[in-house]
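2024-03-11 09:14:02 INFO worker-7 job=invfold-0412 stage=load source=structure_tokens
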């Protein structure tokens, strides 16, 4: 059973994936993989430098992610360019990791934690899509708290992403995360248990 967990920034996608990991699922985190494939010298790193120039590098040759984010969130064209470079690498690695788990005889739940629900490598791979949503004002508050952004910066990051209504159109399950972490855990645990009761493979 492969579950795709997605949602906009600040909605709580990573929290849902963490709860699923605690319940026994194997989580493949697209954000973590994207950091790995953009390490100095890697193919995606080289393509980013070619596209954006050496100005997005820090003295140790690692990407200056804050500067790069500032560039791409002001330009939809540049954001799509960066996403395309990274997505090819991330989806290929996820595919290899899924194949490896299957070859090892794993019959539990695999979670693809992905911020952008691309068709190839996500929608065409998962059995279910779980979309995590949250009121925009709460999302802004969370982004400000965790990233030390101003209100306007956090709002702009949210507005630069796909609207939540578009995420919802893809969903088999919608998880509204406007309450406490305890309420979120209860919701996710109930959904996870339902996978097993429906006759799907579960790791618990």
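2024-03-11 09:14:09 INFO worker-7 stage=emit residues=204
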């Amino acid at each position: 059973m492969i579950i795709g967990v997605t949602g906009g920034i600040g909605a709580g996608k990573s929290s849902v994936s963490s709860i699923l990991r605690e319940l026994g699922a194997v989580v493949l985190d697209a954000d973590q993989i994207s950091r790995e494939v953009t390490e100095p010298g890697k193919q995606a790193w080289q393509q980013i430098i070619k596209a954006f120039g050496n100005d997005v590098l820090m003295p140790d040759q690692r990407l200056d992610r804050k500067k790069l984010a500032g560039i791409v969130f002001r330009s939809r064209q540049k954001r799509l360019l960066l996403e395309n470079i990274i997505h090819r690498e991330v989806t290929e690695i996820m595919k290899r990791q899924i194949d490896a788990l299957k070859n090892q005889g794993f019959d539990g739940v695999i979670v693809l934690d992905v911020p952008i629900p691309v068709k190839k490598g996500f929608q065409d791979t998962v059995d279910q899509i779980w979309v995590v949503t949250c009121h925009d004002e709460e999302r802004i508050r969370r982004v400000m708290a965790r990233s030390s952004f101003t209100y306007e910066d956090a709002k702009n990051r949210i507005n630069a992403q796909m609207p939540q209504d578009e995420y919802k159109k893809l969903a088999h399950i919608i998880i509204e995360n406007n309450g406490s972490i305890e309420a979120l855990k209860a919701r996710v645990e109930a959904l996870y248990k339902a996978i097993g009761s429906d006759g799907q493979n579960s790791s618990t």
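2024-03-11 09:14:09 INFO worker-7 stage=report msg="DSSP finds ten helices and five strands in the chain."
2024-03-11 09:14:10 INFO worker-7 job finished
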